[in-house]
Amino acid sequence: MTITIQRVDPSDLDAFLQVPDTLYAGDPAYVPPLRGWLRRRLKPSNPIFKDYELAMFLAVEDGTPVGRMSALVDRRFNKKKGEAVCWFGFVDFPDRADVADALANAIHEQAHAWGCTTLRGARNLTRLEDPGITVEGHEHLPPMLTAHHGPHIPAHLERMGFTKHHDLLAYDIDLFQADGSPTPVPEDLQAKADAVDIEGLVIRPFRWRHVWADMKRAYAVFDVSYRTVPDNSPMPFAQFVSLALPFMVFTSPKLVQLAIVNGKPAAFVVCLPEINEAMGGWRGRLTPWGLGRFVRRCRHIRTAAFKLIGVMPEYRGTGLHAAIILAVIDGVREAGYERVDGSVIDERNKPMRGVVEGIGMNVYRRYRFFQRDVDVD
């Protein structure tokens, strides 16, 4: 059988989007992404493509799609970091060396054509969507905004000369004990929160009636506080909103907390309902019947996903992070959730790991970024 590689036209994505549904049919840990959402994200009109260039490839055998991968250049990232990285993403192929090799060769050639010196991934689009390759915890439902990969995929990447760049860690903790009582807050975290003494500090939930003002406050903290995170690149406000706002629709205001000092943003924390717990069974298509089932299932979501926390540099070391974490934990419990997922955290981000591990969270899934050099003439 001969494998051919086809370049995917953004206007004809059906076969490209279908690949993982076929590969992981019957896998209880696979949650099909919303097709409509992905189509909109992949449109050339998406604001992210002001800084990105994307090439999508489909592996075809006897007219049947059997695998896919993509290549992406983030010009903003490369300029800031002084690198020439081509990100590979949408990594879905069967346990077959011929398919894996053909796809890897296609993205390697594309990276070479763009003048890149390094292939790194997985990254589909932004660094917050489906990052890394699943290397541990395949039996667990993936947290939202992360992908699911078969255990054969990292093995093939290693066979093809890709090596570990870094890992991302997914943490979780139950908010209630077996007897129904709240899980105690670690004494050290409580002590730090109790010791906060910042004049003019207000910690409050997100307000829908002032959605744009609160979005701007959260973004201001996000933009500054994440500048030192490894492999981070600046994210314009429009991109931040396009990614965050659709998920905010499903969120109780209690799950998003803002810290404001004398009218200026100082910190924020965002939890979102773990919608993957409600998405099973709709096969990536949100029909009217599927929407009804989804809404009903949303009422039974037990997990809130701890997605982002940021503190302005001038307030680090004051205990503000502890105070806002306790505020969001209270909000999550009040909103009726029983578990908190903390995903995903860069293993090199020791301050953030200290925060979630200090709450008592444990790793239940691991995602890996792989890389290899690109041959340059």
Which features does this protein show?
377 residues, alpha+beta, Aminopeptidase, 13-stranded mixed β-sheet, 13 strands, 33% helix, 28% strand
Question: How would you describe this structure to a colleague?
Answer:
With 377 residues, the protein is an alpha+beta fold. It has 2 domains: 3-169 and 369-373, Aminopeptidase, CATH 3.40.630.30; 173-366, Gcn5-related N-acetyltransferase (GNAT) (Aminopeptidase). The protein is 33% helix and 28% strand. The chain is built from 12 helices and 13 strands. Strands 1, 2, 3, 4, 5, 6, 7, 8, 9, 10, 11, 12 and 13 form a 13-stranded mixed β-sheet that branches. Helix 6 (187-194) packs across helix 11 (320-334). The longest helix is centred in the N-terminal third of the chain and has 17 residues, at 97-113. 40% of the residues are buried. The model has no long low-confidence stretch (mean pLDDT 89).
CATH topology of the largest domain: Aminopeptidase
Biggest β-sheet description: 13 strands, mixed
Instruction: For the record, give the distance between the C-alpha atoms at the N and C termini, rounded to a whole number.
Output: 32 Å
Number of helices: 12
Amount of beta strand: 25-35%
Number of domains: 2
Could you name the ranges where pLDDT drops below 50 across 5 or more consecutive residues?
A: none
Quick check: average pLDDT? 89
CATH H-level superfamily of the largest domain: Gcn5-related N-acetyltransferase (GNAT)
Total E-strand runs: 13
CATH architecture title of the largest domain: 3-Layer(aba) Sandwich
Give the structural class.
alpha+beta
> What Rg is obtained from the alpha carbons, in whole angstroms?
21 Å
Gross morphology is globular
> Helical percent range?
25-40%
CATH class of the largest domain: Alpha Beta
H/E element string? EHHEEHEHEEHEHEHHEEHHEHEHE
